[in-house]
Amino acid sequence: ADVKKIAVIAGDGIGPEVVAEAEKVLKRTEELFGYQFETEHALFGGIAIDEKGTPLPEETLKVCQSADAVLLGAVGGPKWDNNSKELRPETGLLGIRKALGLFSNIRPAFIFDCLKEASTLKPEVLEGTDLIVVRELTGGIYFGEKFRRETANGQEAVDTCAYNVTEIERIARQAFDIARTRRKKLASVDKANVLETSRLWRETVNRIAVDYPDVELEHVLVDNCAMQLLRRPSSFDVIVTENMFGDILSDEAAMLTGSIGMLASASLGEGSFGLYEPVHGSAPDIAGQGISNPIATILSVALMFRLTFGYHEAADSIERAVKEVLDAGHRTGDIAVDKRSAIGTLAMGQLIVDAM
Amino acid sequence: ADVKKIAVIAGDGIGPEVVAEAEKVLKRTEELFGYQFETEHALFGGIAIDEKGTPLPEETLKVCQSADAVLLGAVGGPKWDNNSKELRPETGLLGIRKALGLFSNIRPAFIFDCLKEASTLKPEVLEGTDLIVVRELTGGIYFGEKFRRETANGQEAVDTCAYNVTEIERIARQAFDIARTRRKKLASVDKANVLETSRLWRETVNRIAVDYPDVELEHVLVDNCAMQLLRRPSSFDVIVTENMFGDILSDEAAMLTGSIGMLASASLGEGSFGLYEPVHGSAPDIAGQGISNPIATILSVALMFRLTFGYHEAADSIERAVKEVLDAGHRTGDIAVDKRSAIGTLAMGQLIVDAM
Ligand SMILES: CC(C)[C@H](C(=O)O)[C@@H](O)C(=O)O
Ligand SMILES: CC(C)[C@H](C(=O)O)[C@@H](O)C(=O)O
């Protein structure tokens, strides 16, 4: 039988509770569709720092490398915020992306009809918003040389931002490919009027564009994009950009949908392997109370089914179940208008499993 | 008599038309308050490329250097977008900031009561929004070494982001000083979980904070700030950040107020000298039609009066006049709900001059 191996990284804060619900969805998928999953848990982030002395233990990396996909809850929290660089959860995150070759971060941002009101944007502006930010994830200023040196003006810190043609080409191709399956519009975001990396980015995207005459390409400066996302979010289809700009813009895009507790993300490399995680963070303030929203993590499983396994029917089933449960009025505290009627993490997970 | 010298750079696109109205305001201020201004026009940006072969002619720099303040319209346009780097308007902009030592860009973003509806944010979210982004303007990745080199993965482009303690200290002090005159809240934005420059930024801001025990300081990661601006804009007072983050966040902040055609900005160095300009761009699509909105440029004059000359009464008069004209229902096309009743640039300028 074709057993799919999934590395499960619960992580910190609300990570373990939301991942537990996603695992129930995996189980239910086995029953309903006859698929087989083998899950292996691994330590990562803050809990790995506490238990193993490093945010990304060798063993965890091995578990991921021998899996077909990774499901990640969330990492980080105030407990580790003042640690030295090597002992910070974020360092593990950057490390795992690089080690697994996950050069592309896919962040869909769209509106859940029943949650339109949760956005701070006017409903008529939001109407029809359905975009994907494709963020380059293993290059740029995140991974360039960093150092300090003494100068006449005191200490100086330096970060280096570098991109080569190969790195830009592969992410550009992926974005064009995704745009092709959607509304065929690609916005490439850079700061080509100032940065050399952006000029190379733009040249390279233009060269790749020749292979995608059916996709309409526009170049948008990053500052302008931050504005246009607010002014006309529904006009964007696929946005492709470098690591740092993607970090900022994908969070802005997620927030403007008002559905940040509901959005899933995928980090991909070459081939079908991927790491899937909710867009929201570890929310240490509500961890352990059983009130967190497991939907984004459950939808991350659906995204895994689509992008890594090609289990579209099962993905449909999950997404339909989520919609049904929401349409029936069930809400966790973060998305409830009337907080008193909010249900907990377990109840929400169970309702979705039952609705599949 | 104390004659103030103002270098006037009309620039490109709608620049000349909006600056012309601002000059009428200067003239009216002389009549009303007995001040004396000597204006000297200089070529800059696209028009300087066309007429002098460089975006920032020596002569223009001299005019600015011998002035007490600079009033700038807007620069740039599609005509010069594909020029080589040295022949682009933006290069002139970066050059003039550096040459004049304008290390700080002050961008107030607030709501004009009568324009609340123009924002894509819900009015109840926007309510009370009144913030200032203090952007470092002569350091960071904008001014670091840039180059290309050949690698096994094709050409590679490199940008360098550097900050030293002196650069961070002076902008931090300025932001704390501004916060002190307002609601005494400062948000310092960085990406300290990834960047070395951000870690130095945070350490330095924390050290300066000791001198400002009356100002409440919070550190916000740039991706989170892009979200929080959307979620709770009114909770921000002063935001201080480095050059690239400031570029993105100040545009996001301006756009969310819905008043981008109305916002002024100041670029300052040590001492009282400053360069003042509207936040909006050169809008080449509507240039020369006499329909552009001169209010942001007129309010830039008011900001100049406050920050460079200390002419608070005159600044009050301008700001009150703008408010009065808007309250009376007069609108240029960009802010008119009913476009048919929109008035032109000249009419708007005259109404404000008359109301002073
Ligand atoms: C935690 C941090 C290093 C990370 C990033 O900036 O990539 C996070 O913000 C994200 O977007 O996944
Ligand atoms: C034109 C460009 C170089 C400039 C910048 O990024 O600084 C502009 O966006 C601004 O904010 O003044």
Automatic annotation (TrEMBL), chains A, B:
Gene3D superfamilies: Isopropylmalate Dehydrogenase (3.40.718.10). The record marks Y142, K191 as: Important for catalysis. InterPro entries: IsoCit/isopropylmalate_DH_CS, IsoPropMal-DH-like_dom, Isopropylmalate_DH. The keyword NAD applies. Its main location: cytoplasm. Its cofactor is Mn(2+); Mg(2+). Substrate binds at R97, R107, R135, D223. Catalyzes the oxidation of 3-carboxy-2-hydroxy-4-methylpentanoate (3-isopropylmalate) to 3-carboxy-4-methyl-2-oxopentanoate. The product decarboxylates to 4-methyl-2 oxopentanoate. Belongs to the isocitrate and isopropylmalate dehydrogenases family. LeuB type 1 subfamily. Homodimer. This is 3-isopropylmalate dehydrogenase. It comes from Paenibacillus alginolyticus. The lineage of its organism: Bacteria, Bacillati, Bacillota, Bacilli, Bacillales. The gene is leuB.
